Amino acid sequence: MSSSSDSSETRGGRSRRAELKRHYKEKPPPMGMFAVRNRANGKVLVGTSINLPGALNRIRFQLELGAHENPALQQDWQRHGADNFSFEVLDELPPSEEPREDPRAELEVLEALWLERLKPYGEAGYNTPPP
């Protein structure tokens, strides 16, 4: 049997959940640079995303399915196992008071800096070297 106070808590809980959901949808996800590191051999994949948590989840999911687009990364994942990989946020674009029209230019600058710093090519990483 439910009392009226239980009913008001349920309504209050629902409105709180609705408020949290609305706030989540209004708040853009963090964007910036990420790295997938192979701790067994030191290689790294560096990338950018306008949704860092989503990108890292997608990459992990693709690797677990055996369907990642980077064959060397996928092969090392199969060889060394998930426990030998870390998924890291390297850098985030700071939140902006005004909505960003197109953050890609800012992400390209960040990417150039991190690629220069880490040089994740050949034996050091999974990125394709610049031309």
Automatic annotation (TrEMBL):
Residues 1-34 are annotated as: Disordered. It comes from the Bacteria. Residues 8-18 have a biased composition (Basic and acidic residues). Signal peptide: none annotated. CDD domains: GIY-YIG_LuxR_like. This is LuxR family transcriptional regulator. The lineage of its organism: Bacteria, Pseudomonadati, Myxococcota, Myxococcia, Myxococcales.
